[in-house]
């Protein structure tokens, strides 16, 4: 029986208090981009209607998209991301509906991808529609005026993203305005290969597992001949960065960045990176953690060579696709230390759909871009993608729990047991600002770059 899944949204709402992250659409664009010749002006006029008429059509619920339009779209729905097939199916439905084409350039959401997106904006090669992070990662192209605010889009299309709770749409840190419509949120947790834990004779960590107890568990797993933690510090250091630092502050203080090495956040970052270095020195990470691709260590986890794998809610689909025995996997809390309980989690609405100014100012692509995002944002589609994750839907997610696998059901139990939520601290830094840590984690854990020097360089980057 279908019912609304409110647990994730309620959890995020509860702990927020504890914690404190076509033709009719073308005219307006053409007015801001005068034609070079009289012939061009005439052609443009034939393909456009007055801005007033465009607004009237939008208010009436119509959105004329010109057949044959090619829309350039970049998202994070690639690689092992669990919603790749849902995304591709959604794109196909939109293409068939309007007779248009999507030129897709999606990529896995690692630091390389983030650099590529920023570089594309700097080079004037940005897409028409972008599904991307809405924290400080978006600052460079927001500050450059390369994306359009939701408010501006709604002056022409009042119903744009009207099924979303406006107060849950995050504002950009650069100027406090809202650009990205959140699709669905995330949580991060500790995925577990049950058979490895069983063979090693250890209990699966739970809500009360401390960091000291977790280290003992890891040692027993290592002694049994398995890798305790599948991780690529070369490509995906951010998950362990986040939780290691979280263990040295609280849900109320975690989503912050240091002003100096000596303030509370600075000390937490130093101690957290020290814990990651300790895990490496103890041999608890994948043997090739400093050189491996993320896909390599993930496969070692699925293949029963490693016990634990930290990732986000989106990874559940990737695990289900990679195994015939989904019941062998579960997800639980990352063990806590100091004032942080293991059940204090990282969660939020950190990504959303942007429409670029390039598309907005293009008489042909404006309506196509708006219709594409609107189709992605229907209650039905958001529910399909979100599943057990949080959303900003006014009506909540419609979910048939009978259709969920055991891993998804375990995730619901975890979220219901969460005691507090914090946004990710890393989202307060741009990719370039945090590069001294994220791009050099192998050097940090091997000692060739000191923890203090790496953090100092981040602080210097943030001050520029």
Word description of this protein:
This protein is α/β, with parallel strands linked by helices. 44% of the residues lie in helices and 13% in strands. The protein has helices spanning 7-19, 27-31, 38-46, 51-59, 84-98, 111-122, 139-143, 150-156, 194-200, 211-223, 238-246, 264-281, 294-302, 315-322, 357-360, 365-376, 379-386, 406-417, 431-438, 441-446, 451-463, and strands spanning 2-5, 70-74, 101-104, 129-133, 181-182, 186-193, 227-229, 306-312, 329-332, 344-348, 351-355, 397-400, 420-422. Strands 6, 7, 8, 9, 10 and 13 form a six-stranded mixed beta sheet that branches. Strands 3-2-4-11-5 form a five-stranded mixed beta sheet. Helix 5 links the parallel strand 2 and strand 3. It is globular, with a radius of gyration of 23 Å. The termini are far apart.
Q: What is the strand and helix layout of this fold?
A:
Blueprint: E1 2-5, H1 7-19, H2 27-31, H3 38-46, H4 51-59, E2 70-74, H5 84-98, E3 101-104, H6 111-122, E4 129-133, H7 139-143, H8 150-156, E5 181-182, E6 186-193, H9 194-200, H10 211-223, E7 227-229, H11 238-246, H12 264-281, H13 294-302, E8 306-312, H14 315-322, E9 329-332, E10 344-348, E11 351-355, H15 357-360, H16 365-376, H17 379-386, E12 397-400, H18 406-417, E13 420-422, H19 431-438, H20 441-446, H21 451-463
Parallel strand pairs: 2-3, 2-4, 7-8, 10-13
Antiparallel strand pairs: 1-12, 4-11, 5-11, 6-8, 6-9, 6-10
Helix pairs in contact: 11-12, 19-21
Number of DSSP E strands: 13
Structural class: alpha/beta
Shape descriptor reads globular
Number of distinct helices:
21
Radius of gyration: 23 Å
The low-confidence parts are 1-61
Distance N terminus to C terminus? 55 Å
For the report, how would you describe the main beta sheet? 6 strands, mixed
Helix content range:
40-55%
Question: What fraction of residues sit in β-strands?
Answer: 5-15%
Mean pLDDT across residues: 87
């Amino acid at each position: 029986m279908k019912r609304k899944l409110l647990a994730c949204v309620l959890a995020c709402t509860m702990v927020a208090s504890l914690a404190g992250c076509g033709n009719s659409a073308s005219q307006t664009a053409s007015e801001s981009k005068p034609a070079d010749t009289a012939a061009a002006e005439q052609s443009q006029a034939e393909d456009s209607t007055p801005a007033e008429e465009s607004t009237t059509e939008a208010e009436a619920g119509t959105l004329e998209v010109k057949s044959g339009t090619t829309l350039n779209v970049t998202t994070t729905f690639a690689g092992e991301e669990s919603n790749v097939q849902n995304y591709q199916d959604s794109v196909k439905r939109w293409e068939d509906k309007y007779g248009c084409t999507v030129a897709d350039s999606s990529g896995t959401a690692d630091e390389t991808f983030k650099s590529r997106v920023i570089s594309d904006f700097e080079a004037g090669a940005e897409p028409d529609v972008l599904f991307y992070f809405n924290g400080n990662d978006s600052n460079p192209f927001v500050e450059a005026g390369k994306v359009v605010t939701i408010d501006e889009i709604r002056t022409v299309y009042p119903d744009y993203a009207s099924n979303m709770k406006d107060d849950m749409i995050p504002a950009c840190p650069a100027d406090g305005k809202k650009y990205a419509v959140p699709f669905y949120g995330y949580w991060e947790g500790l995925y577990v290969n049950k058979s490895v834990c069983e063979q090693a004779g250890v209990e699966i960590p739970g809500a009360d597992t401390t960091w000291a107890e977790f280290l003992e568990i890891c040692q027993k797993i290592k002694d049994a001949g398995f890798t305790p933690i599948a991780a690529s510090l070369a490509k995906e250091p951010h998950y362990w960065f986040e939780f290691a630092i979280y263990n040295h502050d609280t849900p109320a203080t975690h989503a912050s960045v240091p002003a100096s090495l000596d303030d509370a956040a600075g000390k937490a970052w130093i101690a957290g990176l020290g814990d990651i270095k300790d895990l490496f020195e103890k041999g608890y990470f994948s043997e090739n953690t400093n050189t491996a691709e993320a896909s390599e260590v993930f496969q070692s986890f699925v293949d029963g060579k490693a016990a634990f794998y930290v990732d986000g809610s989106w990874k559940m689909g990737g695990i289900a696709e990679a195994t015939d025995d989904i019941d062998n996997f579960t997800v639980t809390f990352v063990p806590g230390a100091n004032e942080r309980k293991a059940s204090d989690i990282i969660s939020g609405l950190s990504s959303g759909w942007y429409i670029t100014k390039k598309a907005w100012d293009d008489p042909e692509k404006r309506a196509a871009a708006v219709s594409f995002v609107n189709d992605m944002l229907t209650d039905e589609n958001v529910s399909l993608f979100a599943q057990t994750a949080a959303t900003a839907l006014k009506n909540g997610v419609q979910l048939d729990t009978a259709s969920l696998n055991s891993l998804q059901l375990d995730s619901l139990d975890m979220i219901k047991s969460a005691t507090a939520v914090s946004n990710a601290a890393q989202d307060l830094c741009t990719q370039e600002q945090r590069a001294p840590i994220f791009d050099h984690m192998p050097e940090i854990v091997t000692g060739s770059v000191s923890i203090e020097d790496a953090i100092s360089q981040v602080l210097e980057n943030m001050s520029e």
